Amino acid sequence: MVERLQVALAELESEDISVRLVSKFYHSPCFPADYGNDFVNAVAVLDVFLPPNEVLMHLHEVEKNAGRIRGKRWGTRPLDLDLLAQENCVLPNPDTFLRWHNLPLSAQLEETPGEIILPHPRITDRGFVLIPMRDVLPDWVHPVTGKTVDELIAALPEGACDGITPLDLP
C-alpha cells in the first residue's frame, strides 16, 4: 500500500501539477467498517494550474493506472485519491456543499454527487483525513465552517481517530 501511494504521488506530477508537501503516511482502519481492507492515508499539498474539475480528472486517471475500477461506493479499491480543497473554493455553491456535508451516512452509501463538491464534504467527519492534513496544513481553515484543522479534530466523535497511526518509513 505504501509503495502504491508513493507511485501515485510521483504520477501526480505533470506540467500543471507539482507535489509541494506530503504528510506522514498513516495506517487507517477501513471506513466504513467492513467495506474492505485497511488503508494507508496521507495528504499532499499540490501546486496546481488547473481548475478543480481538471485536477479531479487527473486524480481519477492516476487511480485508473493503479487498477481502480469505479463500482460500489466505498468498495475495495487499490487507490483512492480525493481532491479535498482548492484554495478557498466552495463549489458548486454553499447550499449544494451544505446538502452533501449534512447528508446522513446511510444516504452517503447510496448517493454520489454528479458534480465536484469543494471542499470535500466529508473532511470534517474523518480523522484519517484531518490528522495527516494537520501535518502539512496546520493553519488551514475550512472555508464554510470557519474551523481550523485542530478544531475539526477536537469536534470528532470519540473513537474517530482510533487506529490511525503513523507508519515508520525509511
Description of the molecule:
Pathway: Cofactor biosynthesis; tetrahydrofolate biosynthesis; 2-amino-4-hydroxy-6-hydroxymethyl-7,8-dihydropteridine diphosphate from 7,8-dihydroneopterin triphosphate: step 4/4. Belongs to the HPPK family. This is 2-amino-4-hydroxy-6-hydroxymethyldihydropteridine pyrophosphokinase. Residues 3-137 form the 7,8-dihydro-6-hydroxymethylpterin-pyrophosphokinase domain. The chain has 170 residues and is an alpha+beta fold. The protein has one domain: Alpha-Beta Plaits, CATH 3.30.70.560. The chain contains six helices and five strands, in the order αββββαααααβ. It has helices spanning 2-12, 52-65, 94-101, 105-108, 127-136, 149-154, and strands spanning 17-22, 26-28, 39-41, 44-48, 165-166. The two termini are 15 Å apart.
Largest sheet: 3 strands, antiparallel
- Reported by name, the CATH topology is Alpha-Beta Plaits
Poorly predicted tracts of residues: none
Rg for CA atoms? 15 Å
Q: In total, how many beta strands?
A: 5
What is the name of the CATH class?
Alpha Beta
What percent of residues adopt helix (DSSP H or I)? 25-40%
User: In order across it, which strands form the biggest sheet?
Assistant: 3-2-5
- Give the name of the CATH superfamily: 7,8-Dihydro-6-hydroxymethylpterin-pyrophosphokinase HPPK
A few lines on this structure:
With 170 residues, the protein is of the alpha+beta class. 31% of the residues lie in helices and 11% in strands.
